[in-house]
Amino acid sequence: MKKLFGIGIGPGDRELITLKAYNLIRSCNYVFLPESKGESLAGKITSEFIKGKQVIELSFPMGADNQERYLQAAILINETLKDDETGVFLTLGDPMTYSTYAYLMKELIHLKVETETIPGITSYNAAAALLGLPITLKDESLYLADGNIDEEILKRIDSVCILKVSKNKQEIIDKLERNDFDYTYVKRCTQANQAVLYNKEEMLADTDYMSLIFARRN
After folding, report:
1. Would the N or C end of the chain have less CB density within 10 A of its end CB?
2. Is 122 exposed, middle or buried (0-12, 13-18, 19+ CB in 10 A)?
3. pTM, 2 dp
4. Which among 152, 148, 150 is positioned nearest to 166, based on CA atoms?
5. Run of H or E including 79
6. CB-based contacts of 138: which residues, under 8 Å, 6+ apart?
């Protein structure tokens, strides 16, 4: 029976890819890569691991409504994989955390394609390690959000991580400051062009899509 593995390759440093992920990449028949604007960051990160593999890129523009693309990608994967063949779909971070793969998996299941998910290190896990800050301590709560935050929820939690903050940083920062949070901006975490910003004006000026804000209550 054909099977697709959804593999989280972590935030960018290839040494953070798990051994299980590496072994599946090396043993599979096909590698499926998400790409946007003609570029696959997942492909760049794993370039040494996918040499000699049959690679197929699937277009998913960042920030777009890709519902029809998920269906068409699932159909292509189903038609590409023959019985007893395996494929891997490589995604940044973790496949079950704000990931293209989660939507693709749903379509594959509808097509009766067997799937298995291999977890990866998330960008916010990597950012917390980089900053030397705990995500949560005993009896604390974490708020994980994508692009915006609900201030009513913010009032009740101890730590917050907001991913993909390029469009509305001012609103996010205003809410954090009103609720007594210390915050740090991290972009391209663990990648060669990684940067950590503490100055608010520098944060507001940056436009990198692959950015996050990590904050803890004072």
Report:
1. C
2. buried
3. 0.93
4. 148
5. helix 67-80
6. none
Q: Say whether domain 123-217 belongs to CATH 3.40.190.10.
A: no
* 168-197 pLDDT tens trace: 899 999 999 999 999 999 999 999 999 999
Question: Which two tokens mark 129?
Answer: 């390690």
Domain definitions of the chain by residue range: 3-118, 123-217
Q: DSSP secondary structure string, 15-69?
A: GGS-HHHHHHHHH-SEEEEEEBTTB-HHHHHTTTTSTTSEEEEEE--TTS--HHH
Is pLDDT above 80 for 213?
A: yes
Given this model, what pLDDT does residue 37 score?
Answer: 82
What's the fold here for domain 3-118? Cobalt-precorrin-4 Transmethylase; domain 1 (3.40.1010)
Q: Compute how many other C-beta atoms are within 10 angstroms of the C-beta atom of residue 142.
A: 13
Q: Quick one: CA dihedral 132, 211, 164, 8, positive or negative?
A: negative
The alpha helices in 111-188, defined as continuous H runs, are: 123-131, 151-154, 169-178
